[in-house]
Request: fold
Amino acid sequence: MTTTPQTSRTKLSQEAFVQASKVMPGGVSSPVRAYKSVGCDPIFAKSGSGCIVTDIDDNDYIDYVGSYGPLILGHCPDSVVAAMTKAARKGSSFGMPTEAETKLANMVIDAIDSVDQVRFVNSGTEATMSAIRLARAATNKPCIIKCTGCYHGHSDGLLVEAGSGALTLGHPSSPGVPATITDNTLLLPYNDLAAAEKLFAQKADQIAGIILEPIAGNMGTIPPAPGYLQGLRDLCDKHNAILIFDEVMTGFRVHRGCAQTLYGITPDLTCLGKVIGGGMPCAAYGGKAELMQLMAPAGPVYQAGTLSGNPLAMAAGIATLTEVLDPENGVYENLEALSARLQSGLEVAAKTANVPVTVQRVGSMLTCFFTPTANSPVTCFDDVSKCDTEKFATFFRTMLDEGVLLPPSQYETWFVSHAHDEATIDKTIAAAGKAFAAM
Ligand SMILES: *Cc1c(COP(=O)(O)O)cnc(C)c1O
Reply:
C-alpha cells in the first residue's frame, strides 16, 4: 500500500495520532478506526453537528460513517441531547432498575412482532454472545452456524472467518482463540441455501442455531437473496434450531420494524444495538417469552452487566426511537429518498469516468464496491474479496480531501442519516465525480 504524503490540512490529527500510538495499541480504541487499509493516518474528531463532522484541524466533512451505524439522526439531534442532559442530572447509574428500561423495552416490543421480551446489554458483542448462549441452552445442542463475512462482534466463538469454505469446521481468525472453542462454530457462505441444507442434513443433531445478519453489512452491503431467509427459517423449524437475526446494524436502520419486517421473516431471537442506543453504549437481545424466560433471574441461563440498561443510554435510545418511529417525521421515507439519490448519483458518476463499480443498497445502508466489471452483483464474501481495495483506498483519500468522510475500508457500509439533505448528497456526488475521474 502506497501512502499519500499527508498534507498540512491534517497536521494536528497526525500529531494526535503519534501521541495516541504511544499509549494505545495502534493509537485507537477499535481497529476499524485506524486507516491502515486506506494508506493514511486517521483524522481525529473534534465535534459533530447534523451530517457534518469536524476534525481537530477544523476541517468539515460530510459524514457517512455515522459512528458505524448508530447516528440515524445525525450528530447531536436536539431531542437526544436534551434527554441525555436531563438524565445525567438525575444520576448516571444506580445498579437498580429504572422505569426508562421498561419504556425502551416496550418501544422495541411494539415495533418488532417477534420480540416479546428483551434484555439490555452494553454492546452488540454482548448481545450476540448472550443470544448464542440462550440458543444452546434452549436446544441443548453445541454448534452455531455463522456465515463467512458476517460480523457478530468479537466474542471468541464468533471470531471465525473464511478459509476453509462451507461445510468445514471453523478456524480461529485471531490468535488467542483456541480451536476447542471455534470447533463449535460452523461456517457457511452467505446467500447459499443449498449449503445450509447440506450442513443440516449432516449435523442437525449438533446444531443449536444459525446467526446471521439478515442484510449483510459488515462485508459491505449485501442484501439476502430472494427466498434465502425463509429457507433458513424452514430449516430451523424442521431441525429444532434457533434462528438468530443479528440486527445490530439493520435494527431500526432499514425499516421501523427492522430487516425482519422488511422481508417478512420471523426469527426466534433478535440482536439489536447501534441505533437503539442513539450513540450511547446500548444493545439488546430479545425474542419469544418462552425463550427469554430462560434467562437469569427468571431462568437458569446466566448473563449480567453492571451498566446494562444505563439511564443515559436508555434516555438516548428512547429519544432516538421516539423520533424515528413517529410516522409524522417521515424518517424512513426521507432516508430512502436521499439514499436512492446517492446511489444513482454514484452510478452515473462512475460510468461517466469509466470506473467499474457496483453500488448496493438497502434503505440507508450503501456500499460502492470496486468490482472487476460494472454492475456485477456482490452476493457473498467470495464476491467481496474480488473487489479492488487499492482502488477503494485511492477513492477514499480523494473523497477525504474533497470533504467527504467514508468508512475507511471497502468492506464497510456507508450510512446516510436523517440529517443529510439533497444539497449534501449532491455535493457528495460531485466529489465522487472528481474522485472517479482521478483514478
Ligand atoms: C457492530 C455490530 C456488532 C458488534 O457490536 P459492538 O457494539 O461493536 O460490540 C455485532 N453485529 C453486527 C451485525 C454489527 O454490525
Summary: The chain has 14 helices and 14 strands. The pocket of pyridoxal-5'-phosphate is lined by residues 123-125, 128, 151-153, 213, 217-218, 246, 248-249, 273, 283 (CB under 6 Å).
